[in-house]
Structure formats: C-alpha cells, structure tokens
Amino acid sequence: xxxxxxxxxxxxxxxxxxxxxxxxxxxxxxxxxxxxxxxxxxxxxxxxxxxxxxxxxxxxxxxxxxxxxxxxxxxxxxxxxxxxxxxxxxxxxxxxxxxxxxxxxxxxxxxxxxxxxxxxxxxxxxxxxxxxxxxxxxxxxxxxxxxxxxxxxxxxxxxxxxxxxxxxxxxxxxxxxxxxxxxxxxxxxxxxxxxxxxxxxxxxxxx
Length: 207
Description:
Helices cover 59% and strands 0% of the residues. The protein has helices at residues 4-8, 20-23, 46-62, 66-75, 80-101, 108-128, 138-155, 162-186. Residues 1-46, 157-207 are annotated as: Disordered.
C-alpha cells in the first residue's frame, strides 16, 4: 500500500485552477476568486510555502532540537509513534507560533503537507537510532503524524481562527477516511468497495 503520507504530497485531484486575480499578481492576503488565502491553498504558491515550512522545521529538527529529539525517541522506543507525534507536533507549533508573531499564516493544507514531510524525516531518524525497522515502518510513521495533528490542534484550539480550525478538521477527517478505505481494500477476505458512482470494482489487494 502506498502510504498516506506519500499520497498526501501530491496535488489533490480537483484542485482549483489559478484565478484571474492570482494570475495578475494580486497581493497575497486578498480574496482570489472567492478563496481565502488563510484557509485555501493557492496552487501557485502552495509548493513554495510548503518548502519554506519544511526547511524551517528541519532546521530546528537537526539544529537546536536535536538533543531533545534524540532523547524523546530513545525514551519512547516502546511506543515510537507517540514519540514521533510529540516531536512533529512541537515542530509544527514552533513554526505556527513564529508565523503568528509575524502577523502571517499559511493555509492548513500547506501545514499538513509540510508535517507529512517532517514526519518522514523524524521516522528516518528513528530508523537510524534502531527504534524503527528499516522496512515496514510506514504504519508507525503515519500513526505518529496523526498524533501530531491531534496534539497541534489541541495546542492551538483557543488561538486559531475558526475557519482555519474547521479546515484542519476537514483535512484530518479526509485522511482518516482514506486510511479506512485503504485498510478495507487490503483486508484479507474483504471485498474491495468501489468508489460511489464508479463502474466495475477494481482488483482486490493493496494500493
């Protein structure tokens, strides 16, 4: 099965096309074709924003947080997904607070995709520390990512604008639904459920 983290890195199907306002260079922060830049990811700017967030979190991961990260992973070796979730949540919260202090923000979809990349990086660190196996570690990393999203949501519940909080909730529900569907398709003896409105069901098995 292709991991949800890898699936999430691509451009979502049906993503809105750049509006005339965006093509004409309308400043960020203004409504673009009905989209709220604080909530809706701009197809033109999303990748650049994600890269900036990833770089900021990785600089912290491999820089000032490295001793703490190593300690969290080693102490949480029996439950690596919880250790990964704790680390990723701290990294997310750090960049979110930095942006907030500057009076800036990023759409939830950008933050979620950046967190996916960073979760993979933390998982690779856990592999190097022999806390996770080199093969078959995808489930633990995905579980850690989901825990990080939950912890991040709890930490920002009071200060995050309602529209952003709602979008984060929608994204998390979508990831959980995708996870459930992939488990159904990969389950032994369980028939694959075709998407609603689809024609003939596809072959059974993992993704």
